[in-house]
Design goal:
This protein is an all-alpha fold and about 80 residues long. InterPro entries: Cyclin-like_sf (IPR036915). It comes from marine sediment metagenome.
Length: about 80
């Protein structure tokens, strides 16, 4: 994955998080970096980009079970 692709994903993730926080109370109170990590992972998988939960863990420092938990709410 290129840096430009990752930056684009981050921008899309920010928009997704803003939209979801307005619509869903389940995500309110979650740590911002966990929300961002889950959103980036979700969007990358939708686009078929090669990113794993382990990659996300190393970038954001979020534990995989928390990312999966938030990603289930996003879906």
């Amino acid at each position: 994955m290129l840096v430009s692709e990752f930056i684009s994903l981050c921008k899309e993730a920010d928009k997704l998080i803003r939209d979801l926080l307005v619509k869903s109370t389940k995500l309110q109170g979650r740590r911002p970096k966990t929300l961002k990590a889950a959103a980036v992972h979700h969007l990358a998988r939708k686009k078929g980009l090669p990113i794993t939960l382990n990659d996300i863990y190393h970038i954001y420092g979020c534990y995989q079970p928390r990312i999966i938990e938030v990603e289930k709410i996003i879906k």
